[in-house]
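Sequence of AcrR family transcriptional regulator (Paraburkholderia caledonica).
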Amino acid sequence: MSTRVSDTTSAMRKAPRQARSRATVDVIVTAVAHVLDARGWSGFTTNEVARVAGVSIGSVYQYFPNKLALVDAIRRQHFDDVLAVLQRARERHTSPERFIECLVNDLIAVHRDYPSLHRMLLDLPNPGGAKDADEAFQQEYLHRYALIVAAYRGRRPGGKGDWTAAQVLSSAVEGVIHNAARRGLLAHSQLRRELIRMVHGYLGDPHVATADSTR
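Predicted 3D structure, token representation.
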């Protein structure tokens, strides 16, 4: 099953068709991550992206019409990286403890490589054309979290409770990781341990009574 949901080419001026063109686009997008992480939005220019990528400025504009399109491309790539982590988590055949440990470690790793970049992606506005990509990502994101909930609790996926649990769990994990990224705390081992404990605590007891259930 493919882990890709976002379509990077929709943010581009020209879709790469050949292997060499796709390799050029990959190099450019990687350079975007380096430049944003090292220089921030104020130092982010298409000329600097071209220099870091080792391509001409014309090659950048051949595929990306402006800076926002470059930011959109790196954001979509991040979507795909997160979905790949969730897919790997579901496919692992291991103990519940190891299952959650790997999930948390991989989600932190996806955000840790370019910490300044991820802080900016949280704050920079989405280009107008990114709405569909965001919606597609959120739908698949929650779907994969629901599959993880069902797998952890040892039952067939598809229940309404799994979808609600996916919304709660994903929001909690996402909130912790994004706040840690903003504060530069993703490398702290204590944060990782507490996040693993939080996920275990939530998934380990799906029958906790609520106010509604006692009325």
